[in-house]
Amino acid sequence: MQRRLAVLVVALSSLTACADGEGAQTDVCQAAADHIAACSGQSAPVAPACDEAQAQEVLDRSCEALDAALGDQKSDGWSAALARFGCGLGLYRYCPEVACDADADEAEGFLTAPDAVPDGASACAVDALAYQGCGACAYYACREATAGCGADGYLMRFAHHYCERYRLISEPEASPAARRFLERVRRCLVTRFDREVPEGTDCATMRDLGFASHPDCYVETGFCELSIADWLLVLNTIDDGDADFSQMLTTGVLCLREWLGG
Fold first, then answer.
1. Cα–Cα dist 177/126, whole Å
2. What is the pLDDT of residue 245?
3. Residue 159 pLDDT class (50, 70, 90 cuts)
4. How far apart are CA 6 and CA 216, in angstroms?
5. Residue 186 in contact with residue 163, Cβ under 8 Å?
6. Exposure b/e, 102-130, CB count within 10 A at least 16 = b
7. In whole angstroms, what is the distance from residue 33 CA to residue 239 CA?
8. Contact present, 51 and 85 (Cβ < 8 Å)
9. Distance between CA atoms of 139 and 132, rounded to whole angstroms?
């Protein structure tokens, strides 16, 4: 389903380029980005300038070789270099993890006004919603302390993981509009989850309710108004095979409905 939305994004991007009279970018860096994306069934960003020798090396590798290298980035030097190369091209799912520092966020002024915290919010939410920055991601670890769903549960494997990845890896590279969207959707997801998933909810139900909250939050916070490039940034931060496919499709359908005024 994510691939279908990616296809929609790429198709719209192509139409926009044609309308603007722009030709397709065919340099070796773009070709390498397209090759990595096609092998992983994802969408390709518009690639910046890169190491052309490394780009050619990527083009000389089969999809099987690329998939094997990206699936085990510690196996050899080339595998790790490929991940860094993909990250530099805007395929953010290949970027290495970055540590989150809530104290640094506070020092940099990433605090919101107290009245931004909704009435009835839990203690975990009150602490998290005090931040525009990565401190908001602490909400999921706080809930996990009592939920006990483990490293593979929704709270840590998806919600916390991607909250930090978008905040620390994608957001610094995003356009101003995409940064505002990522801040808003981060807060929306925490607020909605906190309101709709009470303490004591079992882990399977928690996962279902957590994923169900994503489409509405994405649309409510401006996903449909983003540019094609911003859509690609959002999509290309998700690990291969790690997206909730129905969630991504639902978001695409909601956006189409909004565009059509229905």
1. 26
2. 57
3. very high
4. 19
5. yes
6. beebeeeebeeeeeebeeebbebbebbbb
7. 16
8. yes
9. 13
* pLDDT at position 261: 67
Distance from C-alpha of 7 to C-alpha of 149, rounded to nearest angstrom: 34
Percent of the chain clearing pLDDT 70 (strictly above):
77
Q: CA 179, 172, 233, 203 torsion: positive or negative?
A: negative
CA atoms in the 13 A half-sphere facing the CB of 222: 15
Does the pLDDT value for residue 156 go beyond 90?
A: yes
CA distances from 59 to 27, 29, 34, 35, 81 (A): 12, 10, 9, 7, 14
Instruction: Return the pLDDT at 131.
Output: 74
| DSSP secondary structure, the chain, as one string | -HHHHHHHHHHHHHHHHHHTTPPPP-SHHHHHHHHHHHHTT-PPP------HHHHHHHHTS-HHHHHHHHH-TTSSHHHHHHHHHHHHTT-GGGSPP----HHHHHHTT-B--GGGSPTT--HHHHHHTTBSSGGGGHHHHHHHHHH---TTSIIIIIIIHHHHHIIIIIGGGS-HHHHHHHHHHHHHHHHHHHHHS-TT--HHHHHHHHHHHHHHHHHHTTGGGS-HHHHHHHHTTSPTT-S-HHHHHHHHHHHHHHHTT-
Take residue 2 and report the two structure tokens written for it. 């994510």
> What CA–CA distances, in Å, run from 49 to 23, 135, 140, 211?
17, 33, 37, 36
Would you tell me how many other CB atoms lie within 10 Å of the CB of residue 233? 23
Residue 27 has pLDDT above 80, yes or no: yes
Beta-bridge mates of residue 111: 131
